[in-house]
Amino acid sequence: MNMLNENGLTKKLNLQKLRSVKELSVAIVLCVLLLFASLISPAFFSGANLKTTAVGFSCSGIIAIAMTLALVSGGFDLSVGSVLGLSSISVVVLSNSGVPIGAACVFGCLVGVLCGMINGFLIGYVRLNAFITTLGMQQMARGLVYVLTNGGSVGLKTKAGITAFRFLGSGTIRGFPVIVIIFLVFAVLGDIIVRKSSIARNVFFVGSNEKTAMLSGINTKFVKMMVYTMTGTLSGIAGVLTLSRFGTATASTGSGVEMTVISAAVVGGVSLSGGKGTVAGAIIGVILLSIITNILVIMNVSVHWQNFITGMILILAIIFDAVSNIKRR
Predict the structure, then answer these.
(1) Contact at 8 Å (CB) between 269 and 277?
(2) Which helix (H) or strand (E) element contains residue 248?
(3) Half-sphere exposure for 297 (CA within 13 Å, toward CB)
(4) Rounded to an integer, what distance in angstroms lies between the CA atom of residue 10 and that of residue 72?
(5) How do the residues of the chain divide into helix, strand and coil, expressed in percent and rounded to 5?
(6) Smallest Cα–Cα separation from 256: which of 194, 303, 319?
(7) How many CB atoms are closer than 10 A to CB 203?
(8) Given this model, what pLDDT does residue 44 score?
């Protein structure tokens, strides 16, 4: 019995060590990139550039927290970008119709919660494929965004409370962007919850081996429901913050966010096969990809080549993940 306990503890420690190594390796790459960026452009470390970069990845970073759980559970959510856009335009429509901006924001977040719950119910309880289900939600949410924006853009009308609302996305506290502070709060809380909570451990068990988790008494259906509800909720919050930043919702708001977030999570060490990953790693991945994009912009690289390079980085991360999984067996 003691030997079994020791073996279990050893495996746990080895797994923790593997995660730490992956996070450390990505952090080292990030440091090298920062050094390279400072060499090609002294303006990279200017306050304005760092502020713009941090503000730019804040909403994606918030969604990456939930996407980490989705990937760890053995799934993923392709609808997060469209849900972000739908939440954003919902706030605009309600606010412009006379609803107080606070109530409109709550509704926008609830839109995300509802979309996530629908995904979670269909995937967890009805046992539909996560790819097809979230792809379908992506198309439905994006379709509603096009309907509500009429394929264009809709801005917030000036009224009581709008200035305070816009402060969340574009304001600063002693020169530090409020939206970045919000992102950091979510990142710290998310990392603590994933590392320490028993609910998060159940997500890891489900992602590692769903059948074994089920036989162990874990309610795998509820776990999946919870995970996708979380991705929808944080997507809704990100949509409200995005609107707060720009003051306008467009037909393309949130478009492509899902691939950015999944790429960042995988680059940060979250496994596509499930059962492995941390919020800290995903956040480092978000920052890493944002800095790469920033460097490419500084170097005047065509946006088409930027997409190519980002895709290549994702493929390399997937190859690295596959090799790591082979070594673990």
Answers:
(1) yes
(2) strand 248-250
(3) 11
(4) 21
(5) 80, 5, 20
(6) 303
(7) 29
(8) 81
Owner of token pair 């606010």: 95
Of 198, 195, 186, 197, the C-alpha closest to 237 is: 186
Tokens of 230: 């979380």
CB distance 199 to 219 below 8 Å: no
> pLDDT digits over 135-188, tens only?
999 999 999 999 999 999 999 998 888 999 999 999 999 889 999 999 999 999
The string over 11-30, giving b where at least 16 C-beta atoms fall within 10 Å of a residue's C-beta and e elsewhere, is eeeeeeeebeebbeebbeeb
Residue 65 identity (one-letter amino acid): I
- Count CA within 13 A, CB hemisphere, residue 302: 3
Q: Kindly state the helix (H) or strand (E) to which residue 149 belongs, with its residue range.
A: helix 130-149
- CA distance linking residue 210 with residue 204, whole number of Å: 9
Q: What is the pTM of this model?
A: 0.89
Q: 88: which 2 tokens? A: 């954003």
Burial of 149 (0-12, 13-18, 19+ CB in 10 A): buried
Give 212-221 pLDDT, tens digit per residue: 999 889 999 9
**What is the rounded CA–CA span in Å between residue 317 and residue 223?**
27
Domains in the chain with CATH codes = 47-328 (1.10.3470)
